[in-house]
Amino acid sequence: MNTLLTRCGTVALLIALAGCAKKEAGVSPRGTASVNLVPDSERSRHFDAVNSHLELGGVLYGYADIDGDALALASSAQVLVHQLALTQPQLAALDRQDLKGLFSELGLNDIKAVGFSSVREADGIYRNRTFLFTPAGRHGLLAAFGGRPGRFIGSKMAPPDCDFYSETEFDVNALYDTVRGVVSKVGGSEAADSLAKKLKEAGAGSGFSVLDVIQGMRGRMTIILRMDPQSTYRLPGPGGAMIPAFSAIVRVDGVGAAVSGTLSKSGGMVESKQGSLTLFTPRSAPPLAGLKPVLAVQGKAFFAATSPEFLQECLHRTEGIETNPEFASGLAALGPEGNGLTWVSQRFFGRLRDIGSLNPNATAEQKHVFDVFALNVPIVTRPLLSVRTNLPDGVLVRSSWNQSLKADIAMFTIYNPVTIGLMASMAIPAFQKVRQASQEKAIQNNLHTLYDAAEQFYLINGASSTTYDQLVGPGKYVPEIQPADGEDYRSLTFRKGLPLIVRLGDGRAISYPAGAVSPAATHLPDQPKSAADAGRQKVYDQIAVVNNLYTLDEAAKKYCIEHNVDTASYADLVGPGKLLAEVKPVAGEDYTPLVFTRGQRVEVRLADGRIVRYPLGATDSSPRPERTSEQAPAPDDPKAQAMIQNLQVLNDAANKYYAEHDSTTTTFENLVGPGKYLPSIAPVAGEDYRSLLFKKDHPLRLYLKDGRVVTFPLQRQE
């Protein structure tokens, strides 16, 4: 009986097992995946070493074999630099360098492969891993990452409730050795010695050597910060915003001895001793009320803290952040040893988001800034932790972070060194040309502004020269002039009728009016003037003479009004104590015989025989304007006189335009507007100056709504 039952049970069990086995064979187990790799003969020889540090199947997995790519990039860069040097002489020195050797010196060829992966956990945190494969070791720039991994000794200093803790191993001296080696390859041993000498001398006036600091920075730097859940600090200045209060400490190993002497000699510090610790507290009040900053040196270690109390609390702590359960579990998952660690708590981000609520009386603009800031502060469900570890065959970075590596990878695809280099090689020459043209335009505008200001000065003060300081400054003709390329406008010579010329550091000369030559250059016997230069100078002479006649005519009008007469001689107007102190000839002309009569034109003969009339008219060699029946405004019609003044200003601007552009016509739009010859023209009685026809040696005719025609220069029956 028992035997029968036993046999039946055995058969049933076998049937059940067979059924289960058949079912499992038909369905793949949940959570498993089959990945087929290429044959060994086709596989990257670094893949297995990198893949062993990564996780496959998450939101991101990447591998790249870059063995030899750095040297290939150096070869391509060498060809590119050579091609650019043919048109850009400043690259000749770089063209002579062995870029492959420089890349190797920098250690860029040490990395043979890279890998990265990201896995999203249930609470939205990502397990990220990045591995740089350096099977032959690291040197050059990569040597700055430090040496063998070790315990994070700073964790004893950090309070269990700290909100930010970072500990990083560094070797700045190795970085300096790399830079010195590159300098030696590029500039020779003398250049390398010069670099060391300058670093040695730098800071000597303050009692320390920058080189000593660099050579001492071989250790770890620790940063600890704890946010106060209730207290706040007010930023300095009127309407200073409130921010969360905090306590912080920074420890830098290796530089204590290099800076202690400087701190001891500083008159702004008070030195005191507490056991092996030397404290330095500032004499002046801190920028934030509530802070009590302190600097300290203990052996080779240098400390900076927000208060002596927090410094002592961290130095004498028996239990640190390693007793925080979240920190302990997170570090256990990533590894207790390493060369770099970063820990950020949820409260750190929460207090940053509180800034808006801490400032209820902020302005609308400030509130907008706070809102935008808060939107960009991440919301995390648990603390963030990242650990960097130097392994025998590479550098591994593992983190539990609030975002995956996808954003970083996407950014690198655009902003990688190759793309940036190629874009720069194409953009720099074009940018230089655009920048140069932009600078020249800005300088031209500055000179234009100064030229117009000088013209106003001559007119108002009856002068023929002035200085930069008389024109520029608060309450003067021009409030301020901003140099565009370091040019010195104080060196300008301001003389009536002469162009303004400023020289730049690279030897270029910019002038206003454009294309003008300096007066000195026109008189050099070994630099004969061309026909174009001579013609241009004649135009400048004529403009200067017209300006003199204009000044004399304005003074004559004033004299006639004051003395109730119709005529005024030159002797009535010019001399000590008179309306004009002096009128200097510019082209050999003689103003002394002139007599100014109301409504009549005056003329003066230049040394070369040309005759210049005022109001402006044709020279003797040019045809006179034909007589017309246009109405001349009555002398006592103030509106008409104002229109004539507008026309005269426009006529002067047009003459400048003709001279500068070698043209015989122009338009109102070319003359009037921001940055042009005239900022604006204000109508007197609704007249439209845009309807004017601007043509060289032809009068301007302004047609009014009442049928009159106002002309400048005035056309009269003779």
Features:
two-stranded antiparallel ribbon, 13-stranded antiparallel beta sheet, 718 residues, alpha+beta, 20% strand
Mean pLDDT: 77
Q: Give the oligomeric state of the chains in this entry, treating copies of one chain as homo and distinct chains as hetero.
A: single chain
List unreliable stretches of 5+ residues: 1-30, 517-527, 617-636
The class by helix and strand makeup works out as alpha+beta
Number of helices: 20
Radius of gyration: 41 Å
How many extended strands? 27
β-sheet strand percentage: 15-25%
Task: For the largest sheet, list the strands in their spatial order.
Answer: 1-2-3-15-14-13-5-6-7-11-10-9-8
Distance between the termini: 156 Å
Shape, per Cα inertia axes: elongated
Estimate the helix proportion, in percent. Answer: 25-40%
Largest sheet: 13 strands, antiparallel
Brief summary of the model shown:
37% of the residues lie in helices and 20% in strands. The chain is built from 20 helices and 27 strands. The strands form eight sheets. A 13-stranded antiparallel β-sheet has the order 1-2-3-15-14-13-5-6-7-11-10-9-8, with helices on both faces. It has a two-stranded antiparallel ribbon with strand order 4-12.
Question: What do these coordinates show?
Answer:
By secondary structure, the protein is an alpha+beta fold. Among the domains are: 147-179 and 219-392, no CATH class; 626-718, no CATH class. It contains 20 helices and 27 strands. It has a 13-stranded antiparallel β-sheet with strand order 1-2-3-15-14-13-5-6-7-11-10-9-8, sandwiched between helices. It has a two-stranded antiparallel ribbon with strand order 4-12. Strand 26 (700-703) and strand 27 (709-712) form a beta hairpin. Helix 3 (69-85) crosses helix 5 (99-106) and helix 17 (531-563) runs antiparallel to helix 19 (638-661). The longest helix is centred in the middle third of the chain and has 45 residues, at 417-461. The termini are far apart. Residues 1-30, 517-527 and 617-636 have low confidence and may be disordered.
